[in-house]
Amino acid sequence: MNTPTIREYRLFEKAEYNPDEFSYTLPTEDDLPYDDGDVMETERHKEQMNLLIDSLKACWKDSRKYYTGGNMFLHFEVGGAKQFKGPDFFLVMNADSRERKSWVVWQENMKFPDIIIELLSDSTRETDKKDKKKLYSQVFGTPEYYIYDPFSQEFRGYRLSSKSAYKAVKPDRENRIYSNVTGLYLAVRNDRLRWMTEEGYILPSHEELSESERKRAEYAESQLVSERLKAEQERQRAEQAEQRAAMLAEKLRQLGVSAD
Questions:
Q1: What is the separation, in whole angstroms, between the first and last Cα of the chain?
Q2: Domain range summary for the chain, segments of one domain joined by +
Q3: E strand or H helix at 222
Q4: Nearest CA among 248, 225, 228 for reference residue 236
Q5: pLDDT in tens, the chain (260 residues)
Q6: Can you give the pTM of this predicted structure?
Q7: Are 90 and 74 in contact, with CB atoms under 8 Å apart?
Q8: Does domain 6-204 have CATH number 3.40.50.150?
Q9: How far apart are CA 153 and CA 188, in angstroms?
């Protein structure tokens, strides 16, 4: 019996197919490759990927079901020879947030990413702008696709049209692009691609939140020390005033002058 194609699996999905009842034995993330030993192009690419993932997690926490990851294998062909290395960043809504070795679409009820962000480099630029753009629109059906160059700051956004093709999205006056999937904006700020709210609040990562908390704690401590120092100075001034008054009263008494 032949292995089912991706189109067959999409038909199963529409028919409320239950993978546990299917007669084929499908490979899982434990059976499939998940690491080829490659590292991201530069440290800046790695930091940018982690920033996009971590800041979204820090904001959403457990408020909704989603999975976000990056630079991991994304398997979409059952029995195919391709082991496709996944996007630099991707987000899947209505998915369990459990840890994964790779994203295997038939293991995830045929869910493909809802957002994909590729970080451009000299070695991937043409592929990201052409081959992957076509793959993500025609095969994945990913509603939103973004490309960003961490060095040149080139940033573009695309939305999927009814013809399974991407249409470019123009940034607003503040050079932000709104994401319908997340309800947030994407914008380049301080040479980094950031998630941003309608009000312009940049979503901080856990590291940035920790640093902010540390600074707030240090400021609170400095304020406490300042208040204590101020109180001590007030106490000393009061004591000195009492001592001067007592000395003056004693001199007046010695001179036979009534303090009253």
A1: 116
A2: 6-204, 206-260
A3: helix 206-254
A4: 228
A5: 444 555 455 544 544 555 555 545 788 888 887 876 667 789 999 999 999 999 999 999 888 999 999 988 999 887 655 657 789 999 999 999 999 999 999 999 999 999 999 999 999 999 999 999 999 999 999 999 999 999 999 999 999 998 789 999 999 999 999 999 999 999 999 999 999 999 999 999 888 877 656 556 555 566 666 677 677 778 788 888 788 877 877 777 777 766 56
A6: 0.74
A7: yes
A8: no
A9: 7
